[in-house]
Structures are given as C-alpha cells and as structure tokens.
Specification:
Elements: H1 2-5, E1 12-17, E2 20-25, E3 49-56, E4 59-66
Antiparallel strand pairs: 1-2, 3-4
C-alpha cells in the first residue's frame, strides 16, 4: 500500500455490503470514528466492541457496539 511505502500508518476499515467489498479510509481524517477502533481479531481478549452495519435509507452505516464492559480509558 502507498501508506506503507511512505512509512505512514493507515486507518482503513474493510467491510462487505450487499455482496460488495467496501472500505473507509480514515488515514487523513483525524476525527473519523474508524480511527478509534482497535484491530483485534474476533475472539481476541482485547476485543471490546463489535462493528455492525446498520442500513438507513439503503445506505450502510457502521455502528460500534460494546460486547463487554469497557473500563474508563480502555482502548475500543
């Protein structure tokens, strides 16, 4: 990826919607919610949230839901 070539980290979230591959690139948007999500795998002890697609007016919205109690200051 270009970000790796430039030595820059990236904040990209990939998901499927209606059988299409989609992504949100929040690398250059420091206020985007995707930047706040840890990349823990499903079942990882660090995982505290799940991302779900909620459709509103045929538009996908990514929503974050806690799947356990989260301590103050803990990474999502």
């Amino acid at each position: 990826m270009e970000y790796e070539k430039e030595g820059q980290g990236s904040f990209i979230y990939f998901f499927k919607y209606r059988d299409k591959s989609c992504c949100i690139d929040a690398t250059n948007d420091i206020f985007h919610e995707v930047r706040m999500i840890n990349d823990a795998e499903n079942g990882d002890a660090k995982q505290s949230c799940v991302m779900k697609i909620v459709e509103v007016n045929q538009t996908p919205h990514l929503c974050t839901f806690a799947d356990r109690d989260i301590a103050i200051g803990e990474e999502l």
